[in-house]
Each structure stands twice: as C-alpha cells, then as structure tokens.
Amino acid sequence: MVFGDNSTAKSGDNGTSVVGDGNVFNSVNFDSYVPKVLPRSVISSVCKMIAEMEIEYDDDYSIQQNSDWMEKLAYNEVKVFVEIFDNYSDGYDEVSKILQTHLKRTVMVKKIRTVYIKVDSAKPEGADGDYIISEIFKELKEEVCCQELIRPEGLYDEDVEAAIYLIMFYAFTKCKILKPVPKGG
Fold first, then answer.
1. Closest of 125, 132, 122 to residue 179, by C-alpha
2. What is the distance of C-alpha 103 from the center of its chain?
3. Residue 33 zone, left/alpha/beta (φ > 0; ψ -120 to 50; rest)
C-alpha cells in the first residue's frame, strides 16, 4: 500500500485501502466460494417470519392439484422466474427437509397462498406469471424485513432474498402459487 498525502491511499494488489479515523467498511469478495445452499438457520428464520405474518389464511391445504412444473410455468406465462427458480432449485431438498420439522409449515404455505390470491386478484389486465411471482416476492420480503427490524435476526439481505426464492419455489411445487394446468389441457 502506498500513501500519498494524509487523505488518500492506493493499494496495488486490488486490496482495500482506508485512511483516516473511525472508518468502517464491509468487504464482499464475489469471486470467493459461496455455498449453493443457504444455512439451515437462515431458511428456518425466514420460514418462521413468514409463518408469523399478520395474514388471515384459508385452512384448505391439499397437494391434489399439483401440475407438472414446466407445464404450469408455461401455462401461467412465466419466463423470467423459470430461470430464477432453476437457479435456486438445488436448495429444494434442503428446504423440504427443514420444513418437515418446521411446526408452522402448513401455516406458512397457506399464508403464501393467501398473498398469491391477493396479488392475483389485484393484478393489472394482461399481467403474466412473472408479474404475479414478483409481486408475491416483494410482499414477502417487505414483511420479513419489517419483522427483521422489529426482532433482529442478523440476516443479510442476500440471504433473505435467496431464502424467500427457495420458499416460494417450494410453495410453487405444492401448487400454492400460480394456477394449476387444467386437467386434460
């Protein structure tokens, strides 16, 4: 590191240079290895927050209407979230395992379904499945982040987003987000 005057610093090795008193910085190395699956504690915390959302929900919980995932995405005109869900699909088994032991799994999925119903009924004319999923994500993230402010869990924004995508994908596979493909069609 080479220091010029008392107010600047240069680092020739792509490192971080800091000059002055009381400096605080966070360094993120995007080239480092990042695990593909989030820590169980993050997923569990976000599941808990979603389950505790102040949302009325319907008690009907059934997996009898499950459609083939790709057919369902095409039927609902989803393009962008095919890639996003595919990007997070490697964590599906982990989310499924976590939710098997989560006491409020059914409540959480029902609340996500309620958010979906509200978004679907208020969507603008011509809105596709990507719009609906994006709006569900926004509402869930807003609720989780609001709870994070009230009861801090120390979660990073990127981890919260990844956990929400994983949980939404789980709810999608249980046919709680988007319309199922009609039988025989």
1. 132
2. 20
3. beta
Name, of 58-72, 104-118, 130-144, 155-169, the range with top average pLDDT: 130-144
DSSP 82-139: HHHHHHHGGGHHHHHHHHHH-TTHHHHHHHHHHHHHHHHHHPPTT--HHHHHHHHHHH
Q: Are 166 and 88 in contact (CB under 8 A)?
A: yes
Structure tokens at 90: 């490697």
Write the pLDDT tens digit of every residue in 134-178: 999 999 998 888 876 666 677 788 888 988 998 899 888 888 899
Residue 77, CA atoms < 13 Å, CB-side half-sphere? 6
CA-wise closest residue to 110 among 39, 44, 38, 62? 62
DSSP code for 155: -
